[in-house]
Amino acid sequence: MAMNARSASQALRAFRPIAIRPAVIPACRSYATSSEPDLKTTFKEVLPAKRELLKKVKALGDKVIGEVKVENTLGGMR
């Protein structure tokens, strides 16, 4: 009797002891309670520097990159 690979792996997984099975729920909980900063905090830290960079790039709007101006590339980023 031939078993395909998928059903064979499912059968072997059923016989795996409970102690070896991965614990999914505790891993999710520890991830949800991690000490990483939230999105608002990250934005507050990063945005001022990005705004300054954008001002510098906009100041170079008349410069040409190949056949396109810098201001056209900024408009295309929207």
UniProtKB/TrEMBL annotation:
Domain of life where this protein originates: Eukaryota
Its recorded name reads 2-methylcitrate synthase, mitochondrial
Organism annotation: Lachnellula subtilissima
